[in-house]
Specification:
This protein has 432 residues and is α/β, with parallel strands linked by helices. It folds into 2 domains: 328 residues, ANL, N-terminal domain (Rossmann fold, 3-Layer(aba) Sandwich); 99 residues, ANL, C-terminal domain (GMP Synthetase, Chain A, domain 3, 2-Layer Sandwich), CATH 3.30.300. Helices cover 31% and strands 25% of the residues. α9 crosses α10. The chain is globular, with a radius of gyration of 22 Å. The structure holds adenosine-5'-diphosphate (ADP) and zinc ion. The site of zinc ion has 6 residues, from loops.
Length: 432
């Protein structure tokens, strides 16, 4: 099912034209209404007249997360506060959060892109949708909420936490869709099993998972554990929130809503735009937003883009799985490591649960790298030989993927900390 066929299946040339017009309007808007942008453009020696085609976007300076912090809280708004109807903020790991203001029209755009996502997952007005992303300043809860209402579904505004009640309502209300982080979905999968209620008594069919990186292997785990189809939803507060992109029934790439958010892939070192298909840092320019349009915002998310038409009929560009944020990349003994690489290995070993933790430390100027992972109940044993063999197998596979030989510590099932929102899977003691 497709929510907005005209846009989602638009001829690529028409999409370019639309993007071009919208880009020009946005550049005009920020130049005239937002001091920091005007200054930046003046420093770069350009005016809105210099942006005539989509390719001219490269003349515009980038915007970074740091800029958003520097202009905290409202200096990047391009409308007066009287036009703003909602404020959100992303946690931000250090110091001040990043604040985003939405006009009424911005909220409508958010609902529109959210509706495209949920429709692509096969959800509609007859469906009950449980939103278990956190409600509040975090965009997850209210973003998914707006999407579900827009398609006419019945929302359960559950928010995260309170796991027993999550399971009870999912069961009693007959939720068909579950929106939460993939790591919380794992947690709920265990809780569902523990509840002792037979799976057939649940109507759950669709998972709407995002807000953190997750691998294809994790998808398979979740689909099997929950007996559902698990779909990716992508988004970030700065751009709008969840709904910037979504998978379709093909589960083969995340379609971006590029009539609103114009993507580029750049080399994170040089800032140069990379050729189609290359892996690099994702950059967005919002081309319809009023409250806080962003020009060439550097997401730090590493991925690639594919412009081939999808078998679902959509022509919108598809983003590959996000390897991780460049800030999540660990450099251990000089080797680049993403938690998602470890995840892909762990999920492929049948004896293991998909719960893991990476612990990095430095002793005598040498990096120590330990991977803790839970062993499935049915495999966990006191037999040292068996456990040693399993450990070796994991080490061997990790070595193959990472080019690095971590210590592997097998831990009891359910002993690692569970997450109700975004998972924390790395403890890097070197930075403490
Ligand atoms: P914070 O920056 O505080 O985590 P956000 O909710 O705005 O707050 O986080 C957005 C980020 O979350 C994205 O830039 C990306 O790194 C990650 N993210 C969101 N959705 C996905 C997804 N589907 N797959 C991978 N990463 C995701
Ligand atoms: Zn598709």
């Amino acid at each position: 099912m497709i929510w907005n066929e005209t846009i989602e299946c638009m001829d690529r040339r028409d999409m370019h034209k639309l993007q071009e017009i919208r880009l020009k309007n946005t550049v005009e808007r920020v130049y005239h209404n937002c001091e920091p942008y005007r200054k930046r453009m003046q420093e770069a020696g350009i005016t809105p007249d210099d942006v005539k085609t989509l390719d001219d976007i490269t003349k515009l300076p980038f915007t970074s997360k740091k800029d958003l912090r520097d202009y905290y809280p409202f200096d990047l708004l391009s409308t007066p506060m009287s036009e703003i109807v909602r404020l959100h903020a992303s946690s931000g790991t250090t110091g001040k959060p990043i604040v985003v203001g939405y006009t009424r029209k911005d909220l409508n755009i958010w609902n529109e892109v959210g509706a495209r996502c949920f429709t692509a997952y096969g959800l509609g007005k007859n469906d009950i949708i449980q939103v278990s992303y956190g409600y509040g300043l975090f965009t997850g809860g209210l973003g998914a909420h707006g999407a579900a209402e827009t398609i006419g579904g019945a929302v359960i505004p559950m928010s995260s936490g309170n796991t027993e009640k999550q399971i009870m309502l999912m069961h009693d209300f007959g939720a068909v869709g579950l929106a939460c982080t993939p790591s919380y979905a794992l947690f709920l999968a265990d809780a569902l099993k523990d509840s002792g209620i037979p799976r057939e008594e649940f109507k759950l069919r669709v998972g709407i998972f995002g807000a953190e990186p997750w691998t294809e292997q994790m998808r398979l785990e979740l689909q099997e554990k929950l007996g559902i189809k698990a779909y990716d939803i992508y988004g970030l507060t700065e751009i709008i929130g969840p709904g910037v992109g979504h998978e379709c029934e093909c589960q083969n790439g995340t379609h971006l809503c590029e009539d609103h958010f114009l993507p580029e892939i750049i080399d994170p070192e040089t800032g140069e735009v990379l050729p189609e298909g290359s892996m690099g840092e994702l950059v967005f320019t919002t081309i319809t937003k009023e409250g806080m349009p962003l020009i060439r915002f550097r997401t730090r998310d590493l991925t690639s883009l594919n412009y081939e038409k999808c078998s679902c009929g959509r022509t919108s560009v598809r983003m590959g799985r996000i390897l991780g944020r460049s800030d999540d990349m660990l450099i251990i003994r000089g080797v680049n490591v993403f938690p998602s690489q470890v995840e892909s290995v762990i999920c492929e070993i049948p004896e293991l649960e998909p719960h893991y933790m990476l612990i990095v430390d430095r002793v005598n100027s040498l990096d120590i790298f330990e991977v803790q992972v839970e062993v499935k109940e049915s495999f966990y044993s006191d037999e040292i030989n068996r456990m040693l063999q399993l450990k070796k197998k994991i080490q061997h596979r990790l070595q193959g993927v990472l080019g690095l030989n971590p210590d592997v510590k097998l831990v009891e099932p359910r002993s690692l900390e569970r997450s109700q929102g975004k998972a924390k899977r790395v403890i890097d003691k070197r930075k403490l």
